[in-house]
Amino acid sequence: MQNKIENMDSKSIAFIDEQESDINHSTAKIEQRISHLTEVLDSNDFDLVFAYKSRNEEFKRMPAPYQVTLPTFTPQMINRKKIYQQFGSLSELCTSREEYEDETKSLDAISLSPVREELMHKPRLISEIQTDYGNQCQLIGISCLHDSELWTCGTDHTIRLYNFEGGLVNRVQILYDSLAGNIAVTLCGELVYTNSFLRCINIVKNAKTLTLVRLLDWMPLFLCSSSSGDILVTMINDIGEAKVVRYSGSTEKQNIQWDDQGQPLYSSGDKKDISENTNLDICVADLEAHAVVVVSSAGKLRFRYTGQSSSSTTPPSASTVQSFRPYCIATDSRGRILTADHIMHCIHITDQNGHFLRFIEICGVYYPRALCVDSRDNLYSFNCMARSKIKKIAYDV
Question: What distances in angstroms separate CA 221 from CA 60, 110, 374, one per listed residue?
Answer without folding.
Answer: 72, 42, 22
